[in-house]
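Q: What would this complex look like in 3D?
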Amino acid sequence: MSDVKSARPLSPHLSIYRFSPTMAMSIVHRITGGALYVGTLLLVWWLVAAASGPDAFSTASAVFGSFIGQLVLFGYTWALVHHMLGGLRHFAWDMGHADSKETSTKLAVATLVGSVTITVVLWLGILIFG
Amino acid sequence: MSDFRTPLRRVRGLGAAGGTEHFWQQRLTALANAVLITCFVILLLTLMNESYEGVRAAFANPFVGILMALMVVSATIHMKLGMQVIIEDYIHGAAKLPLLILNTFFAIAVAAACLFAIVKMSFGV
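A: Here is my prediction, written as structure tokens for the whole assembly.
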């Protein structure tokens, strides 16, 4: 039985598929999910710093406010928005909508355009009003 | 060694049975995340230029504390489930089980640290 097991195809079967937007957005959904997973450490840091006292909080604020910090938060915002829009897309599919080839391709492109747009608008708002 | 058990007997209870529950929990927490994390982003935007005292005052508000605690619980369950699928998809050797255990521990550690901080700030200590 063991050779049967080892010959079994294992996901991901990336090499056998032609590139498509839905495929790319599926991969990006995973990558953003993984990034958000690791990035929860930023949330831990911010909350624990705020709970610890003014010194720890000002250290965290300084790092988050630095150029690198803002860059990381910008990326984290995009990952969050993209993963959220991707999740809403999954909800549509779960309920049996928008799953034709053409519609799902359009939706995949819309997810990317939407996530970039929302992230840029959010950060423009932060830069202008912040 | 020949195994006299049928293939069906050997695989019964080895995962497929829990798939529906996993799927359901993933979607349930996704729905909760969409609402709660949106609240969190709005909170962050309002606190952007606040001082330490301003942030602590916000977290002393029961609604903020409860929403934040709910977000942490929902998000950490969601990320544990998501990373579990990633591990199950890509890791097939001896590292799989330790990674699955680490994944659960990481999610619980993140939840514990966040909840401790939120509760501490809620009670103003």
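A: To summarize the key features: Residues 62 and 77 of chain A are 18 Å apart (CA to CA). Chain A is about 80% helix and 0% strand.
Q: Very helpful, thank you.
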